[in-house]
Amino acid sequence: MTRLIFAKILAACLFLACLVGGGLEMRGLRTYKESLVKGPGVTGTGRLSDYLPALKGSWGDTNLYFLDSGKPGGTALILGGTHPNEPSSIVAAFVLVEQALPEAGKLIVIPHYNRSGSTATQPMGAYPQFISIKTGWGEQKFRMGDRLANPLDQWPDPEVYVHYPSRQMLSNVDMRNVNRTWPGRADGALAERIGAAAMELIRREKVDFVVDTHGAELLYPVTNCIVAPDQGASIAQLAALDLTATEFEVHVEPSPAKFRGVSHREIADHSEAVPFLLESPDPFLDQPTGPKTEALELDGKDEFLLAAARRGLLFTDYDEKGKSMEERAGRHISVSRQLAAQWSLFNPERIVAFSCPGYAEFVANGLGPYFRDPAAAPEGSVVLE
């Protein structure tokens, strides 16, 4: 009997130790703040809740950065972190805020569109909690989040998610996927309120086009591409042709007319803005890889994907060099610049132009030189994301 009691006490202690240890790790990710330095191109800041007060004080609220050239032109909205487990989009958004200089029109950048999802890692996925990029002043550290909004912020999931307003039935967890809840609902669940706030931002700021940045599996056909509705097909095609001829291969995929809830469909159907969704190939997201480590996320090198590439099973090029964060984040910025250039050719009265380091610079120099040192930044320019 004594041994049995001892075994039970020992088991209870081990359980509590695991519970406390896991809880501390979760709390560490939940409360960690990334340091972002507003660059000289930033002319103003705001919050998503400025466009839907119901978001204020929630984990769905997030920072906006305005880069206004002060010259006549149009407005572009660039979304990072729609799916926080695709961190190249967040890295690219940080570089835009820190380095981009608007030349005509205005940019609005949201680094953490799904801020809630950036505070939880993939359940049962053995994901690292953070990734760090080396710089000349130290490390720029980012949260490695989940695809969905944190269940601490929106729960429970329904048996079936019924999309509003189409009534299309989707997977139950898609109710926490902010790229399945467009155009949103002001009095809905958190992910729906995020979409409603973003749509109000698009309308109120007279946004001309939206670039929603993502990462995708190499085994997924819709990767290495620009997804565009009919309204933006010509712009996307010309951007892809130019980039393929000068920097890297990229193709265009049409936005499916009956696939509801996604940015590249609902923004086009419920506003005057033209949406584009970018998919940068991210080996970390593929299932048949080695351990899901920080190194895999940063360098994109995996022996199993290399074997798949040799058998012609991937939907993009892949070799021993992998698919680095430099390439993936650089693609987002270079494609966004090219989309702005093509948009401006089609809409000379609504020009959007900006300069920013992108693919060529990141591949040549690494990402480190393009993050500003928070310790040396001017007073008032550091934001905790």
Characteristic terms for this protein:
385 residues; alpha/beta; Aminopeptidase; two-stranded antiparallel sheet; 32% helix; globular
Explained architecture:
By secondary structure, this protein is of the alpha/beta class. The chain has a single domain (63-384), classed as Aminopeptidase (3-Layer(aba) Sandwich). The chain has nine helices and 16 strands. Strands 2-3-6-4-11-14-12-13 form an eight-stranded mixed sheet, sandwiched between helices. α4 (233-246) crosses α8 (325-346). The protein is globular. The termini are far apart. The model has no long low-confidence stretch (mean pLDDT 95).
Blueprint (SSEs and pairs):
Layout: H1 2-31, E1 35-37, E2 44-47, E3 63-68, E4 75-79, H2 88-99, E5 101-104, E6 106-110, E7 130-135, E8 138-143, E9 161-162, E10 169-170, H3 190-204, E11 209-216, E12 225-228, H4 233-246, E13 251-254, H5 263-270, E14 274-281, H6 294-299, H7 303-310, H8 325-346, E15 353-355, H9 359-365, E16 382-384
Parallel strand pairs: 4-6, 4-11, 11-14, 12-13
Antiparallel strand pairs: 1-16, 2-3, 3-6, 5-15, 7-8, 9-10, 12-14
Helix pairs in contact: 2-8, 4-8, 8-9
Helical amount? 25-40%
Give the CA-based shape. Answer: globular
Instruction: Please tell me the overall pLDDT.
Output: 95
- Strand element count: 16
The structure class reads alpha/beta
Helix and strand element order: HEEEEHEEEEEEHEEHEHEHHHEHE
The CATH class label is Alpha Beta
Which strand order do you get reading across the main beta sheet?
2-3-6-4-11-14-12-13
Biggest beta-sheet profile: 8 strands, mixed
Computed Rg:
21 Å
Low-confidence stretches: none
Proportion of beta-strand residues: 15-25%
CATH architecture: 3-Layer(aba) Sandwich
The oligomeric state is single chain
Number of helical stretches of at least 4 residues: 9
Specify the CATH homologous superfamily: Zn peptidases
Distance between the termini: 54 Å
CATH topology: Aminopeptidase
Domains counted in the coordinates: how many?
A: 1
